[in-house]
Amino acid sequence: MSQQTIFITGASGYIGSLLTAHAISHGYTVRALSRTPSSDTKLSSLGAVPIRGDLTSHSVLTQEASTADMVLSLADSLAGNYGKITQEERFKVNNGAISALAKGLEGSGKALVVTSGSLYSAADPNGGETDETSPGRPGGFFGTDSHGKALGEGSERVALAAKEKGVRVCVVRLAPWVYGRGGSGVKLFMQGGVAAGEMIYVGDGAARTTTVHVEDAARLFLLVAEKGRAGEVYNATAETHVTFKQLAEAMGKAIGVPVRAQSYEDTEKKMGPFMTKFLSLENRASNRKAREELGWTVEAQKGILEEIADGSYGEVAEELRKAKA
Question: Where is the NAD-dependent epimerase/dehydratase domain (predicted)?
């Protein structure tokens, strides 16, 4: 059993809380950034040591990183601020935090694992799977900053530059649909479907997307911290064949609302460009590299459609139906 210390940002979140529990079960001491008393309580209940601060507390981030054996960055300034900050503001805060963490690790050769997304890569023009070397999406998924640079790509550039300063930095690209344990985006879309009285998909809904179970994602983060090679990127992905129409139909059936197609233009008017792109872009990201290099395995017993139909989202759907009635 390891006696090493890990510093985690975003440790009280959906993936982070499972990562925290997983790391502690493997003998690590976890110190975790915490913004609020409620997060302190949650982190303490998991066995972690809460450290008060946020992503703008650069001196705290640098100090904690300098004394840790590994650092995992999962926090995102968008959490709790959706619709309140611009994407450029979001990545300015995120990138500042990554730089502060990297500063604390300079010259150490220790691991810094930073979170990104598989939507970074443009879809394969022939409909195949993409990998970590595939071309980026023109203009980026999140748009560009005031200097014309793609925002999401900027975070990866900021992180990977730390390799040149003696940091064993790696990037984990999460699937756009992280699911399981009745949480994450699936729950939010189901709640939205109940409120709207319908579920929609964009266009013909035929675009395929990528999923990963939250427990599998948490295990990969720790594996990357332990074994990942400096400067490398790893996809945290599983299924690559599920369509947006299938997702909408599964969620609609679960919560008992009709499902219909909606044009890209109408969806953008109602939901904005960010969410419309999320619900329409083809993304088929292979996990081969993580499996072959790190020995990671996908252990989820159910895919996302099964999980919605008769898994952890059954209780969520029942609660939403009761509330609606």
Answer: 6-235
Integer angstrom CA distances of residue 182 from 209, 308, 312, 318: 19, 9, 5, 12
Cα Rg of the chain, angstroms? 19
Tens digit of each residue's pLDDT (9 = 90 or more) over 224-247: 999 999 999 999 999 999 999 999
Q: By CB neighbour count within 10 A (0-12 exposed, 13-18 middle, 19+ buried), where does 4 fall?
A: middle
Using alpha carbons, list the distances in angstroms from residue 34 to 16, 20, 99, 113, 137. 12, 13, 19, 18, 33
* Beta bridge partners of residue 117, listed in sequence order: 174
Q: What does the DSSP assignment read for 190-244?
A: HHHHHHHTSEEEETT---EE-EEEHHHHHHHHHHHHHHPPTTEEEEE-----EEH
Half-sphere exposure of 84 (CA within 13 A, CB side): 6
CA distance 189 to 85: 21
pTM of the model: 0.94
Q: How far apart are CA 179 and CA 234, in angstroms?
A: 18
49-52 and 199-202 as β-strands: parallel, antiparallel, unpaired?
unpaired
Encoding tokens for residue 301?
A: 């017993």
d(CA 216, CA 235): 12
Assign 171 to helix, strand or coil.
strand
Q: What would the pLDDT profile of 285-296 be if each residue is shown by its tens digit?
A: 999 999 999 999
Q: Tokens 């510093």 belong to which residue?
A: 7
Question: Which domains does the chain show, CATH number per domain?
Answer: 5-175+213-237+284-300 (3.40.50.720)
Dist. CA 304–CA 45, nearest whole Å: 29
Chain centre to alpha carbon of residue 200: 23
Length of the chain: 325
Are 150 and 139 spatial neighbours (Cβ–Cβ below 8 Å)?
Answer: yes
Q: Coil, helix or strand for 131?
A: coil
